[in-house]
Amino acid sequence: MDFDFSQLKPAPPKLADLNAMPLLEYVGALLSVYGNAAWIPALSFAQSPFTSLDHLHRVMTEIAATADPVTQEQLLRVQPDFLSERESAFVTPTERAAAAALELTRDEVKTLHKQQAEYQKKFDFPLIVCLVGPDAKPRSGLMASIASRLGNTREDERQVALGELSRISRVRLFEQIPE
Predict the structure, then answer these.
(1) What does the alpha-carbon distance between residue 94 and residue 106 come to, in Å, rounded to a whole number?
(2) 9 pLDDT higher than 80
């Protein structure tokens, strides 16, 4: 009997497993949480063991929040922009479902592409929007929020984008690691 093992994936590590892993394995297990930014899980490793996924997420968020502005912008630049997230290798099923649920019209997509181009030109990093969770905006609020963000200063918008990324990373962490 022939078996196709190409689709088999190892079981995701649990929090206890993460706490017991050596550094490289730990970083590999958490690499996708912040979109291939290995430095965030690498720096968080020193603060293990973690008592919960919330604890781990707070530590990782603090690492991103306290990095220097140049490093923060490098982190933001490697993230997928809002409109291309559906193709990103780091998007969870929950993120994909939320994007699909927006059911944007052609005119809305056209407007968003225009806003995204303005945003990219002004801030030099992609538009990052968390579509999941209690702070997620409905379609109408999303459009207004993006238009409003275009009026931010670079510093203010970097902080907004880091906040969005923190919410996204939480979704990814909790989907990737069973507690």
Answers:
(1) 23
(2) no
